[in-house]
Design a protein that fits this description.
The chain contains seven helices and 13 strands. It is an alpha/beta fold. Helix 2 links the parallel strand 5 and strand 6.
């Protein structure tokens, strides 16, 4: 896992496929820094902090969650800072916080279709003991939009339509022309990999309006705006 620089103010940690660790973003201004997504475990979060320390970067004061899926949220309980998420994200996290994390309970959720096999497999790779899983909601909720000033740059947290997950938030930094998009452009893995074409059209249109040059996805390298819009465009008329 390495920390990569996009601009002097924007960094991201590399994703890891084996345990489905997503990209964790880092935005730093003159006054404060912001983290994007909390990671899939305490270990993931601590590895991120180590990267910041090695690069002599200040700790983020707030962590913005892009959506509720486990790989982006199971590190929330370990955060040393405030966390911010969409209201629907917290609704799901509160539900999951009541779940039992045992081999039996996880198998039952698989059989009932509550959980998907890919997530279950990756959880078991990330956690030596699944009893260590702890789920809590974010400390702050938003509905459609909020802005975080960092000093010289701003983080616009915007709720956008998504076929992947209805609670999806992007973090747009207009001064840097960069947007962290999480998994917003993906299929709906919890409903058989289906894709809502109407939501995809709306997402395409909203992203087209944003003045950015680089998008940072949750599980791959950054890509230019044209490539992201081209990907979404293949599903729409």
């Amino acid at each position: 896992m390495q920390l990569k620089k996009i601009t002097p103010h924007i960094y991201y940690s590399e994703p890891e496929e084996k345990t489905d660790r997503p990209v964790l973003g880092y935005i730093v201004g003159d006054k404060r820094a912001v983290m994007v997504d909390a990671g899939n475990s305490k270990a993931h979060y601590l590895a991120y902090l180590k990267l910041l320390e090695e690069n002599k970067l200040p700790l983020p004061e707030v962590c913005v969650i892009t959506h509720w899926h486990w790989d982006h949220t199971f590190g929330i309980h370990a955060l040393q800072q405030e966390s911010l998420a969409h209201i629907k994200t917290n609704q799901k996290l509160r539900e999951m916080s009541l779940w039992e994390w045992t081999d039996t309970a996880m198998n039952e959720r698989l059989q009932q279709g509550i959980e998907i096999s890919f997530a279950d497999t990756c959880m078991r790779e990330e956690y030596v003991n699944v009893n260590d899983i702890r789920v809590i909601p974010a400390t702050t909720e938003i509905q459609d939009y909020t802005e975080l000033g960092c000093g010289g740059i701003t983080c616009q947290c915007i709720h956008l339509p998504s076929a992947h997950s209805d609670d999806s938030i992007v973090v747009y930094i207009p001064e840097e022309k960069v947007v962290f998009i999480g998994d917003i452009y993906g299929d709906d893995l919890y409903h058989g990999g289906k894709r809502d074409l109407e939501k995809t059209q709306k997402l395409h249109d909203e992203l087209k309006k944003l003045d950015f040059e680089t998008a940072v996805p949750g599980h791959s390298e950054p890509l230019p705006k044209e490539r992201l819009l081209g990907f979404l465009g293949q599903f729409i008329k």
